[in-house]
Each structure stands twice: as C-alpha cells, then as structure tokens.
Amino acid sequence: MSNIPYILEDRPDTGLNNSKLGIWIFLASEVMLFGGLFSAYVFLRIAAPEGDFDYWGSKLNVPMATFNTMVLITSSVTMVMSWASLKLQQFDKYKMYLGITILCALAFLVVKYFEYTSKFEYGVYPSSSTFMGIYFTLTGLHVLHIIGGLFVLVYFWTKQADKMWEENQDLLANRIEITGLYWHFVDLVWIFLFPILYLL
Amino acid sequence: MERDDLIEYSLDGHHSEEEGKKIRKKIWKVTLLLTIITAVEVALGAYIKQSNDLWPFVKWTFLVLTVLKAGYIVMIFMHLGDERKWLRNVILIPYALFIIYLIFIALWEALAVNDAWSGL
To answer: Which of A17, A21, A37, A77 to mutate to test the interface with B (most CBs of B within 10 A)?
Structure first.
C-alpha cells in the first residue's frame, strides 16, 4: 500500500508507529494553541472589572451547552466503539458507530448555530465585551476543529472505508485510532471550555 | 523493542469477543462517570452564584472535577493508560506542569490585582 515505513508496524527504536507518534506531536501543538487562549482568558478575567465576566457569562445558554457536552461525550464513546468494532472485525457495527459519531458532530454544530444566532439577534457580538471576545474566539476555534474532524469522519464513512477494509484491515483500524485520538482531543477542549465559560 | 506494559489496543492482534466485552464495559463505566460529573458541575453552576459564600469551594470543585474528567478521557478514551510508560510520561508530565503553572500564575496575578484594587 505504502512505501512510507512504520505506518503500521512499530519502529524498533521508539516502539511506536509513526502515525501515533505524529498525532501525539500534533496534539501537543494543539495544547499550546488552546493553552495560550486559555491563559488569555485567565488574564482577561483577572484584569476585568469585578462582576463583568459574571454578568456577560450569565447571558450564555447553559442548557444548550450542557446538551452539547453530553453530545460530545456520546460522540467520544461511539468513536472508541467504532474502533473497538474494527478490532473485533465487525465492519457493520463500525459503520453504525461512526455514523452516530457523525450525527453527534452535526448535532453539536446545529446547537452552536442556534446559540450564536440568538446572540447576534440581541446585538451581542465579539466586540460587545471582553468576555464575548474571548468566548467567540475560543468557541469559534473549537467549532473549526469540529468541522475539520467532521470531514475526516465522513471520509472514513464513505465507500473509501469499504475499499480500505477490503484491501488492508489493519490500515483502516490504524486510521480510525488516529482519527479517534484527534476527536477525543476536541472533546477534551470542550470539557475545559464548558465550565470556564458557562458555569464559572 | 518489546512492549513494556499491557497494550490492550495494540495492532499486534485482533480482539477476542471476551476482550471486546471487557473493553466495552470499561468504556460505558467511564461514560456514566463523565455524565455524573457533568451533572454535578451543572447543578453547582446553576444553584451557587458568585455572591454565595460557597463560591470559593465551587471554584475549586470545578477545577478538580474538570481535571478528573479530562484525565478519564485521556487515559481511557485516548487509551494513554495502555501505552508505553515513556510515552505516557512524555505526554503527561509537561501537561501536568503546564496546568500547575496556569493555576499558580492565575492565583498569583489575581492576588496582585486584588491588592492593587484594595489600595485604591
């Protein structure tokens, strides 16, 4: 399939395959990206007038965000179940679980769309306050990550996956494992965003 | 290089049905735990506001619960707990230091700002 070495088999020096090492290095850079923005949030909150973040935070929709939290946790579960299904050689179940993951991602985006538009209808924009500035920056970047992940998930749900399953089962399992690591990271970011923006 | 720990998810072989059941059970257990933690967080956030005397306790509870939730996702869903020890350490130690630094600097700066405001 490929001339690039150690895609599936472990490297003798590290004991890891390149795919896994690569995604963890990529995720480390993502932690720095979001970590920088989380730090910005902390310092903006510290410097804000007392009660300012609390006031603007109270304008956010907690039930919608709670629903989205559960949607993302569910998507993480179905993502890992889709991979486990491949390891059990149950391709139909893999498709079903991955399909549910895609639906969860779409549900998250639809809820986010309603959340954003309800703000815009009331004239609340990123420029409205410091809190809204950092809120839209953090959640907007997170939404972009969801959209990026969605493209990959859909790709592995199409006929391409059927073809890959026929040609090289381990390669598909490896790709889904790597995709899953990214997807769980996106879930992880939301796990931090939810309390700091909506609850604190 | 030989594996130095239990790699449940390795590509070395496919899972048996029994192994699959064990893994699935663990995943569902963690899901239930994450759901309970989320429910506790929402309940605390909804009922206790900044003006309440319990607010400092709520803030620390959020910190602990969120890190706990993140830990379960990383160790179970991202199966870092089943990876090689060196990989686990290379990933977890810098992240732990970063989180501790962020908490420290937030508290330090917040106290400094508080002092500055009090002096006005």
So the answer is: A77
Q: Residue B79 region, left (φ>0) first, then alpha (ψ -120 to 50), else beta?
A: left
Q: Exposed/middle/buried for B117, CB within 10 Å: 0-12, 13-18, 19+?
A: exposed
Does residue A51 lie within any of the structural domains? Answer: yes
* Tens-digit pLDDT string for chain B (120 aa): 444 444 444 444 566 777 778 888 888 999 999 999 999 988 988 888 777 888 888 888 988 999 899 999 999 999 898 888 888 998 889 888 888 888 888 788 878 877 887 776
Q: Which amino acid would we find at residue B92? A: L
Domain count, chain A: 1
Half-sphere exposure of A84 (CA within 13 A, CB side): 25
* CATH code: domain of residue A117: 1.20.120.80
* Residue A64 lies in domain: 18-199
ipTM: 0.84
Residues with Cβ within 8 Å of residue B16, at least 6 apart in sequence: none
- Residue whose structure tokens are 């420029």: A127
Q: At what angle do helices A62-87 and B17-47 cross, to 10 degrees?
A: 170
How far apart CA A52 and CA B52 sit, in angstroms, is: 17
d(CA A178, CA A139): 23
Residue of B nearest to A182 (CA): B78
CA distance A150 to chain B (A): 18
Domain-located, residue A12: no
Q: Which two tokens stand for residue B4?
A: 């130095």
Q: CA of B82 to nearest chain A CA: how many angstroms apart?
A: 13
Q: Yes or no: say if A92 and A167 are a contact pair by the CB < 8 Å rule.
A: no
